[in-house]
């Protein structure tokens, strides 16, 4: 029988991040070279990248897909849970049509949306350049950068925070409002709730080490892929190069509560590394042929969403990882972070 959410409480999981509308297109290598982008990179847009968004819309068959890493993960978690409003999302958007698209998509998939709306900038976008099985992300945060901690003090947001037992954020959001992350992290710590974070991209560890080091003692569960884990190890002076040993050392970094930190490192087609305190598990992924892989964009977000869906139900971390693998396997067979049909994850 498919797994259904047996948690009676709505609003168990709060996520905070950058809501972005993905502009996704299949392109050739020359476009990546033109804008100095890497095939599997994830960067923040600079001035030189600004013409890219228009070029994608005018010269390629671009799709508009509701995006933003954390929002994607919550949408996938809702798809697995099959019960609306378990997840609540905070982020900042513009007062425009793109924001309405994002809200409609998230709410239709069961996420409770608590957007901060600004008139100072348009809703953020993310160029997704697909080349074969690779995807390059170039995010123009725009309105997403305007999020301010006082939004968390608004009555509906305060109620959402008070009812949650799990809190999730991305490394991407460290570049926007580390103060807001710290506010949620401290709340989670004071109430013995679970605080979860994703490293998101190598640049987060490379350029935002100071706020990251302040957040880490609160982190109960940390996600990353190989390149993100390696960048974190380099930034935090972990000399090990074996990823299993890196994960063990990350798990052993100083922590405020007495619970073992859980570290999850994905490795593409190779087994997922799961570290629970001193224990290492390697969990194999589901093999797909080259023909089955449509788009790897959103695979990491989907993995996290699947994991979180089981975490809020109190399942083992191994089951959480297996649901993450199930979700990522589904997503990469579709364009963008898009789910189709009913989920049928089995423990």
TrEMBL record:
Subunit-level organization: Monomer.
Protein known as: Adenosine kinase
Active-site residue list: 301
Family per record: Belongs to the carbohydrate kinase PfkB family.
Signal peptide (residue range): none
Superkingdom of the organism of origin: Eukaryota
Catalytic activity: adenosine + ATP = AMP + ADP + H(+)
Gene Ontology MF terms: adenosine kinase activity; ATP binding
Cofactors, names only: Mg(2+)
Source lineage: Eukaryota, Metazoa, Ecdysozoa, Arthropoda, Hexapoda
Top-level enzyme category: transferase
Localization of this protein: Nucleus
């Amino acid at each position: 029988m498919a797994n259904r959410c047996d948690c009676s409480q709505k609003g168990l999981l709060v996520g905070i991040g950058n809501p972005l509308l993905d502009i996704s297109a299949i392109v050739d290598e020359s476009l990546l070279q033109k804008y100095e982008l890497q095939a599997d990179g994830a960067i923040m847009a600079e001035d030189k990248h600004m013409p890219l968004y228009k070029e994608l819309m005018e010269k390629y068959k671009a799709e508009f897909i509701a995006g933003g890493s954390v929002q994607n993960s919550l949408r996938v978690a809702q798809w697995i849970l099959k019960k609306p409003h378990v997840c609540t999302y905070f982020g900042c958007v513009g007062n425009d049509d793109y924001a309405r698209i994002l809200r409609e998509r998230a709410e239709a998939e069961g996420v409770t949306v608590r957007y901060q709306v600004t008139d100072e900038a348009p809703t953020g976008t993310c160029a997704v350049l697909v080349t074969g099985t690779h995807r390059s992300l170039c995010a123009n945060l725009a309105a997403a950068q305007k999020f301010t901690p006082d939004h968390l003090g608004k009555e509906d947001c305060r109620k959402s925070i008070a009812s949650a037992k799990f809190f999730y954020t991305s490394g991407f959001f460290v570049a926007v409002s580390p103060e807001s992350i710290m506010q949620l992290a401290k709340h989670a710590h004071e109430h013995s709730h679970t605080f979860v974070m994703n490293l998101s991209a190598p640049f987060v560890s490379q350029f935002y080490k100071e706020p990251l080091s302040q957040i880490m003692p609160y982190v109960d569960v940390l996600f990353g892929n190989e390149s993100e884990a390696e960048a974190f190890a380099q930034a935090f002076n972990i000399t090990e190069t074996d990823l299993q040993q890196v994960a063990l050392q990350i798990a052993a970094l100083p922590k405020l509560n007495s619970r073992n930190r859980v570290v999850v490192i994905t490795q593409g087609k190779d087994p997922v590394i799961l570290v629970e305190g001193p224990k290492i598990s390697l969990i194999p992924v589901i093999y797909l042929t080259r023909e089955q892989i449509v788009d790897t964009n959103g695979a990491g977000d989907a993995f996290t969403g699947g994991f979180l869906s089981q975490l809020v139900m109190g399942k083992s971390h191994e089951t959480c990882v297996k649901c993450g693998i199930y979700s990522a396997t589904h997503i990469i067979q579709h364009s963008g972070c898009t789910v189709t049909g009913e989920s049928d994850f089995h423990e």
